[in-house]
Amino acid sequence: MADTKAKLTLNGDTAVELDVLKGTLGQDVIDIRTLGSKGVFTFDPGFTSTASCESKITFIDGDEGILLHRGFPIDQLATDSNYLEVCYILLNGEKTDSGTV
C-alpha cells in the first residue's frame, strides 16, 4: 500500500482516505477505486485527468507531446531502429547490442 494518503471529505462529514501512488514518470496519482463503494464516482469530461491503466511499457503526456516506449521517444524508435530492434526493446526493456538482432 501507499504511504501517502489523500483525504476526500464527502457531504461535509464522511472522509475517505485514498492512496497516493508514485508514478514511474510524470505526476503522482490518486487511487480512486474505493470511491464506488462509497456511492460516488469521479467526473472527468474529456478524460483529461484520469489514467485508464497502469503501464510499465508506455508513458504518454499529451499536453507536452511526449510518447515513450520503454523510456525511448517514439520518434527516435521510428527513425533509428528497425522493426526487430523495436520488438526487442518492447520485450526486454533495453536496446540490443549492435548486430545481434
From TrEMBL:
InterPro entries: Citrate_synth-like_lrg_a-sub, Citrate_synthase, Citrate_synthase_sf. Pathway: Carbohydrate metabolism; tricarboxylic acid cycle; isocitrate from oxaloacetate: step 1/2. It comes from the Bacteria. Transmembrane segments: none annotated. Gene3D superfamilies: 2.20.28.60, Citrate Synthase, domain 1. GO terms for molecular function: citrate synthase activity. Keywords: Acyltransferase, Transferase. It is an enzyme of class 2 (transferase). PANTHER family: CITRATE SYNTHASE. This is Citrate synthase. It comes from Escherichia coli.
